[in-house]
Amino acid sequence: MENGMKMETPSAPAFESKNEYKLRTFQSSLNLLAHILIGIVVGSCLFFAYRNGLPLGNMAIHIVLCVLGYHLLMAESILSLSPYNGWSSHLRIVDKRRAHWILQILGSGLAIAGSIIMSRHKVTNWDSLHGKFALVALVFTTVSLVNGLASLYAYEIQKLVPLPGRLSKVTHICFGIVAFGASTISLCYGFQNNAFRNFFGQANTETLIGLSAGFTAIILINPCITFVARLIALCCM
């Protein structure tokens, strides 16, 4: 009692609730930032691809398909499962998974098509760092897409054979992380292309590289945490 007034101290549950609120706000803000960065990077790439108008050349088609596939649709596919994602946070789990799969299939299809178009256009493929990381992204995207079918029916598989059902989810997350990470590294090396650098300038090009690294880190935080948690749970079986 001080000055006739009772001094109240916050209870532990209230304190924890306040911390959780701050954490949710922070994570939601990061999620919003990721969407903004995606818009800037994807928009810049599309602006560059369409700089000469229509019809698009093979290089421009490659840029459009791969950027939309990897860094718009597949990025949103990963974010759709986040509890802090704006457009999918209100969806039921089953609808989140459905949205995840639709976006992943569309994104993978565009990215694979864009890679094939470019490989057919070039005489020598996968020789540059951009191409090598693009190949890694292509392989892991394809494997992740196929592996995802097993992950989609992981519950049914798990009832029959406990380990493979759980393992398919872990590998699907792992393949997805590698595919998306490699696609961003490939994109950043692509930004170093002379035509792109001359069009946007060195400072803007480096800014786009930084923004790409930023939204990739934000997007992959939850999958990495989930992967580690499920891997530990799998090892402790």
SSE succession:
HHHHHHHH
Helix percentage: over 70%
Give the integer mean of the pLDDT values.
87
| Fraction of residues in β-strands | under 5%
Total count of helical runs of at least 4 residues: 8
Residue stretches low in confidence (pLDDT < 50, at least 5 long) are 1-15
Major sheet: none
What is the rounded Rg? Answer: 22 Å
Intertermini distance: 54 Å
Structural class, from secondary structure content?
Answer: mainly alpha
Number of strands: 0
What is the 3D shape?
A: globular
Cofactor: heme b
Protein name: ascorbate ferrireductase (transmembrane)
Enzyme class: translocase
EC number: 7.2.1.3
Task: Provide key terms for this protein.
237 residues; mainly alpha; 8 helices; electron transport; transmembrane; Cyt_b561/ferric_Rdtase_TM; transmembrane ascorbate ferrireductase activity; CYB561D1/2
